[in-house]
Amino acid sequence: MNDKLTISTAQLFAMFPDQETARTYLESRLWPNGVRCPICGLGNRIGNHSPGLYRCHQCDEAFSVRTGTIFERSHVPLHKWLHAMYLLLTARKGISSMQLSKEIGITQKSAWFVLHRLREACGKELSKLRGIVEIDETYFGGKEANKHEWKKQKRGRGTVGKSAVLGMRERGGRTLAMPVGDVDTAALHTAIHTRVEACSTLHTDEAAAYGGLDGLFFRHETVNHSAGEYSRAGVTTNGIESVFAVMKRGMHGVYHHASAKHLGRYVNEFAFRLNEGNVKAHTLKRLDALIVSTARKRITYAELTK
Predict the structure, then answer these.
(1) Pairwise CA distance, residues 275 & 176, whole Å
(2) Where are the beta strands (DSSP E) in the chain?
(3) Which of 32, 75, 121, 155 could form a disulfide with 293 if both were Cys (CB 3.0 to 4.6 A apart)?
(4) What is the DSSP letter of 144?
(5) CA dist 194 to 18, 104, 293, Å?
(6) CA 252 to CA 236: how far, in whole Å?
(7) CA 42/CA 36 separation, integer angstroms
(8) Measured between alpha carbons, how far apart are the two ends of the chain, in Å?
(9) In which element (H, E) is residue 189 found?
């Protein structure tokens, strides 16, 4: 591994010039203790019929490093998958399917599918947040004034026709974000109790839906944005708002639009990049984190487009 914390695209190409080098690397990361059958989970009766193709004599199933991962049944070569993962991780605001198709030499349709599979892998389950946790919500969707006449809902402005996303950021730590159907008290309280450890300190704005959080489970502090207050003695939501700022720049500037159906995967992508994007971590370590997350994840083209 290089002494520097980053590697260039040229260096990545030199490391993984073909499918065979990429396959070997993926096997070393997904099977660090030797080849294991992804179907039965055992690794003591594995036969090797040809490079990269194995058979488990315990369950009598054939498999490869693609089996049981987002790479399964994909015709995209593995070294192109690694390049796509590198680009997704290092592009702070994301990379469009059109740009990815040019970068790795596949069709835009295939690039779109590759990116959604990677976003599916980004949605790994994190342990509960703890300590000081900043919480806020935002909305994604086009402005009513910019929509075609037949798409306008004509029910006012602001959040009409938009999808709500709830974000939580551990002070100096991890970020969680997810679409929510409602931003009422019941929905927000359920999400917070599910994903934040008891006895943590919550920082929110003064929205009424956050009322009642201060008590047995949490300590709750608020900032009054309507009065121009954004920080008071360390109480602030500036951290989670900076997360939303990056998301919105990427969503509007790179992706332009995300339907409510796919929004959760886009949100997962941005959260994963923030959690694994510490500049103090080597690029290959960040790449390894995404590779490990590809296991036991699968989404088909039919599921994405139905």
Answers:
(1) 9
(2) 46-50, 53-56, 61-63, 132-140, 163-170, 175-180, 201-205, 219-223, 231-232, 235-236
(3) 121
(4) G
(5) 44, 40, 22
(6) 26
(7) 6
(8) 43
(9) helix 185-195
Indicate if the alpha-carbon torsion angle 17, 94, 266, 180 is positive or negative. positive
Q: Classify the phi-psi angles of 161: left when phi > 0, otherwise alpha if psi is within -120 to 50, otherwise beta.
A: left
The residue assigned the tokens 């790179």 is 254
Burial (CB count <10 Å: 0-12, 13-18, 19+), residue 93: middle
Question: What is the C-alpha separation between 175 and 242, in angstroms, rounded?
Answer: 11
pLDDT of the residue at 124: 78
| Three-state secondary-structure class, residue 205 | strand
CA distance 222 to 292: 38
What letter does residue 32 receive in the DSSP assignment?
Answer: T
Q: What pTM value is reported for the model? A: 0.89
Strand ranges across the sheet with 163-170: 175-180, 163-170, 132-140, 201-205, 219-223
Separation in Å, CA 273 to CA 104, 112, 164, 183: 20, 18, 20, 25
Residue range 151-180, pLDDT digits in tens: 655 554 457 678 999 999 999 889 999 999
Burial class of 126 by CB neighbour count within 10 A (0 to 12, 13 to 18, 19+): middle
Measure the CA–CA gap between 216 and 29, rounded to whole angstroms: 43
Judging by DSSP bridges, how do beta strands 46-50 and 53-56 pair with one another?
Answer: antiparallel
> Which class for 146: exposed (0-12), middle (13-18), buried (19 or more C-beta within 10 A)?
exposed
Which residues make Cβ contacts (< 8 Å) with residue 69, sequence separation at least 6?
Answer: 30, 38, 294, 295, 296, 297, 298
Q: Who contacts 196 (Cβ-Cβ below 8 Å, separation ≥6)?
A: 128, 129, 130, 133, 168, 202, 218
H or E stretch at 246: helix 238-250
Domains parsed from the chain with CATH numbers: 9-124+280-305 (no CATH), 132-260 (3.30.420.10)
Name the pLDDT band for 253 (thresholds 50, 70, 90): very high
**Rounded CA separation 236/134 (Å):** 7
